[in-house]
């Protein structure tokens, strides 16, 4: 039996979290050993999505542990001690950290274990982003100083480059154990949803965290302008939560074409009814939502951004520069006038992601990695 801790920020709708859930569910068996995984969140999130997701994970016999009931900031103080406790109690062979805050908590825990003379588990760090510690440089340096030869898995070429830049900037050596495993998603099913689709209009979804990285602030301004230029043509469905929640709420109250929903579990199975997905991200590790939409044959209107652009063909016509309003408006005009060969777009992007981002390949590669690290 190989025991693995998947360390995530919280049980929420995010690309890193979705991948952790996928690995926990599908990486159950190696060639000769069973793999038991536990989802470990730094802090508990109390919303409909997290409650439903925990129930779903429990039904699949996937355990979850919350290291703190406090806010995200306070959890960074409490979580390292709680993580050390669970490492000593459960004794996992591998701890798999996803993104920056889990890396930070793990770095503190490793220092504590070292001072106590306790051997740490094997470590995998999945680099899920292309901008690492952009606003907390000292915190990033403190975190990176605790790591050296752990296994590094990047989700894209851009994210591996970001890891190397961060290490070299802080005068730290690179881990010799580096690889790229593309994030992937299973083929979506068509399940019932509660989205209020307007059949006579063009329905565009935004799914994700309401954060600066995701460009939600830019989208809010663009929607206001689109309302004026394309009155009653488009309906925007904004799904998620985050820092810009009140800004989105205000947009909804002042608009007739914007609907807002809390984060939805297994959103990939419910995208099929939308006409388009919009991703105005400033940067991504890879952009799992783009892959899921393409597998659902929902074309993605995407900002040209590190990580996100790797999920689309080089000649994808629905890409735009985030700071170029006219490029985005040109896309909307062509959609309105039905200038795109929509069925061809859907089929082309489906074939592209099916070949490049194989879910089976991702699961197989991680399973082999877990087995190899436990030898």
Summarize the structure.
Helix content is 41%, strand content 18%.
Provide structural commentary.
- The model has no long low-confidence stretch (mean pLDDT 92).
- This protein has helices at residues 15-26, 48-59, 72-90, 100-115, 137-144, 157-169, 216-229, 245-253, 288-295, 325-336, 342-356, 359-374; strands at 2-8, 35-41, 63-66, 94-98, 122-127, 151-154, 178-180, 202-209, 234-241, 258-261, 276-279, 300-303, 319-320.
- Helix 2 (48-59) links the parallel strand 2 (35-41) and strand 3 (63-66).
- It has 375 residues and is of the alpha/beta class.
- The chain is 41% helix and 18% strand.
- The strands form two sheets. It has a seven-stranded parallel β-sheet, sandwiched between helices.
- The longest helix has 19 residues, at 72-90.
- The protein has two domains: 2-184 and 358-374, Glycogen Phosphorylase B (Rossmann fold); 202-356, Rossmann fold (3-Layer(aba) Sandwich).
